[in-house]
Predict the structure.
Amino acid sequence: MSLKGKKILLCVSGGIAVFKAAALTSKLFQTGAEVKVLMTDSATEFVTPLTFQTLSRNDVYKDTFEEKDPGSVAHIDLADWADLVLIAPATANMIGKLANGIADDMMSTTLLATQAPVWVAPAMNVHMYDHPAVKKNMNVLRSFGCHFLEPGEGLLACGYVGKGRMAEPEDILSTLHIYFNSPSDLEGKKIVVTAGPTREPIDPVRYFTNYSSGKMGFALAEEAAKRGAEVTLITGPVSLSTPERVERIDVVTADEMYHEVMAAAENADVLIMAAAVADYRPAYIASEKVKKSEGSMAIEMERTKDILWTLGQMKTNQILVGFAAESERLDEFAQKKLEKKNLDLICANNIKSEGAGFDKDTNIMTLLRRDGERLELPLQSKHDAANRILDEVIRLDVTRK
Ligand code: CTP
């Protein structure tokens, strides 16, 4: 593992996990990174600046007004110097300040001034971590593009057991290593992904839906964002958290999804439709709860708009990717969809095969390209499958140029 030559600004805010930040400083230095440490006043109550100075072999910063070099403004200089800013530990207070644009000390000021990627390693009491205000602030930071290093679970210094323990220095190091070494081959591309099921209401309490979990679409959105794409994820109702650096739009019905996709499609380079959109919806939605009566009942259904087909008709230069979930004659049915919907690529999976299907974390897929190329993927995680699909998107993009 090497972070050789990477300039890391380590922002240490005040909590008992400051002791872990000292170990982190040492490890960052050992992997070849250049580390500068910025501390809040309360952090210095736990571990002295001298410890960090010794471990980082650099001056430690904490006071906005203590300008060490008359030729520069320290907080701006630090903000510009960093390749990456790591807030570890990140207290609820510092997370709140950054989420709300507050700059009342050197750390919060530097954090607003930097254009480097910001990574946040929260550490706090389990109830604080669960507080809606903290959750909201963390979501705001996610929407700003900050990355999170999830805290671990276990016995906390306050005596509680739960989530809130700062991520381990080794895990932080390996995540940063992957981050710095991951390909950014989708940089500059705008990608729209749909995910999850849709819900088609019958009355105020009932709806039609399907078993889609949204995992495949979310994996695609996450991996595309990691590879540098600007991703818009339009999702039906799912219980998945938003991947980092992904713009998420929540919808409920097929019709809502249609409108959001059409709006997002205008500027997109790639459209990947992984949602399991309802093909039919009730022709009438009862405004009051439908009461049961003797005998059977029938609900008249009407077709929804086919989003993917519409995109295929409108297509100019975009790459259009569809999904086909089949239980028989996989290639034949998938190929028909590819042609009918004017796609560049279709990802076909047999929902009956072991390891594939709606709520699984794995998938087995066959990718069919418009030019007749056929690629059989092995059983693999939905994230790995997502990367293979994205590899294919890149290939299509390169060959059309
Ligand atoms: N799709 C869509 N809009 C719809 C329905 C489907 O965009 N209203 C997209 C899905 O996101 C997926 C592909 O179309 O990429 C699935 O094709 P489809 O023909 O709808 O598959 P099935 O619903 O399984 O249809 P069939 O009953 O013909 O197998």
Summary: The chain has two domains: 7-181, 190-400. DSSP finds 14 helices and 22 strands in the chain. The pocket of cytidine-5'-triphosphate is lined by residues 194, 254, 273, 275, 277, 279, 304, 306-308, 322-325, 337 (CB under 6 Å).
